[in-house]
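Structure tokens please, single chain.
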Amino acid sequence: MGRAARRAQERSDRRLQTQQRVTPARAPRMSVSGPITDERPRGVVWQPWTWRWVVDIVSELRKVTWPTRQETTNLTSVVLVVSLVVAAILGGADIGLSWLVEQTLLR
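Here you go.
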């Protein structure tokens, strides 16, 4: 395991430990009519529990291993080269087929 992977693992472990310490067990919330659930009532669209997906997205993005600047540069150059090659192939096929149509069907 490389140094960067080991450090990422250590950061992940520390983050997990702090999350376990910070999040206490919650007692179920109660109201006069019974327990309050996290289910969205009908007709109510924007309530705090509907924004839970934002919290989920942020937590997932924290788990992502982001590429370094060099990896980003290398991958971008690969995408550009492949795009140019595919564009050249499609352009050549377009020119060839249009010439073929002009020579055969349009005469």
